[in-house]
From TrEMBL:
Function: Bifunctional nuclease with both RNase and DNase activities. Involved in basal defense response. Participates in abscisic acid-derived callose deposition following infection by a necrotrophic pathogen.
Keyword Hydrolase set for record: yes
Pfam families according to UniProt: BFN_dom
Location of the BFN domain: 47-182
Species in which this protein is naturally found: Medicago truncatula
Keywords: Hydrolase, Nuclease, Signal
GO molecular function: nuclease activity
Entry-linked PROSITE patterns: BFN
Cited InterPro entries: BFN_sf (IPR036104), Bi_nuclease_dom (IPR003729)
Signal peptide residues on this chain, from the entry's feature table: 1-25
Family listed: Belongs to the bifunctional nuclease family.
PANTHER family, per the entry: BIFUNCTIONAL NUCLEASE 1, VON HIPPEL-LINDAU PROTEIN
Protein name per Swiss-Prot or TrEMBL: BFN domain-containing protein
Amino acid sequence: MVVEVWLKILMKMMKIMLIPTILEAVEVKSGADGFIVKMRDGRHLRCVHNSPHGGLLPDYAPHPAIVLKMEDGTGLLLPIIVLEMPSVLLMAAVRNVQIARPTLYQVVKEMIDKMGYEVRAVRVTKRVQEAYFAQIYLSKVGNESECMSFDLRPSDAINIAVRCKVPIQVNKYLAYSDGMRVIESGKLSTQSPGSDGPLFTELDRPNGKPCVETKEFNLLHNMLTAVVEERYQDAALWRDQLNQFRAEKKANNRSWTL
C-alpha cells in the first residue's frame, strides 16, 4: 500500500516536472548588455525573461552559476547562481575529470550506499525570494516502501545527481516563470563599450584563436582542484597565475576605452 501511494505521488509530480540538461556554463552576469551566460567554449548567450512579468533584471557582477536547459522543446535556461567550488566540481563530474581525493559529494554518495539506500531523483522545486530549493529522493534498496526525501541546495543536489546518475527534474511552473530565452549566441565583440556596432561576432563559430574565457576557467578549475586535493602550494601558484591573468585582462579591457 505504501509503495502504491509513493508511486502515485511520483507519477503526479512527474506531470509538473521537466527534464533538463546541464550546460557547461562558466558564469552569468546582468548589465547594460542584458543577461549574459558565459559558456566554457567562449560563447556568450544573451537572454531575456521568458515570462512577460519578469521585469528588468538588476545589474550584478559575474557570478559562477549552474545553468539548466529545459528539453521540452522550449530551450529555456534556468540559471542558478552558486559558489565557485560546486560549479567547478560539477563541471569536473560532467566531463569525467578524475580527482585524486574524495570530494564531499563522493562521500555523500558512499554514505547513501553504505546505509543501503539509493538516490531515485533530484528535483529543483521552488524559489523563495532569491533562493532556489531542491529535494533529493531516496529509497531502500530492495524495499521501496522505505523512502525519504529532504531539502538541499540545488548546487549540492545536482552534483549528487550527476555522480549517482539519476534524473534531474525542474518544476515546470518554476522553469516557465524564471526561465530565460536565448536571443543571441556568439563571441563577444572586442569593440569599445561606446561603439554602436553589434554586440556579438562570429556567431556559433570558433575563430581558431585561443579563448580567453576558457583559459580563465581552466586556471580557476586548476586552483580549486588543487585545494580539494589539499595541494596548497600548487593552489597558491594557480592563484597567482589567475590573479596575473585577470589583471592583464582588466588592463587590456581598459585600453579599449582610452
